[in-house]
Specification:
Elements: E1 7-11, E2 18-22, E3 28-34, E4 40-47, H1 55-78
Amino acid sequence: MTQKDEWLIAESIDGDRQYLVHNLPPRFVGLIVDNDEGGSDVTDIEFIDKPIADAQKLARLMREGGDALVKYDRRLHLDD
């Protein structure tokens, strides 16, 4: 495999939990939870690689993850 997708959405085998996975360095997995505004948040982030020490770079990566999750949710609703 030469090319990897940057963002993945994974579901537990039981189907009761979803995860956002960053598949490029720094790789991490975060639990997707519903928020009070009707959207989703990512919590319990665990880094597989060394975490980013630069706060601005980390914030940008988290925004990109949120954008990926929004894009995924929109695609799901288009199929409804």
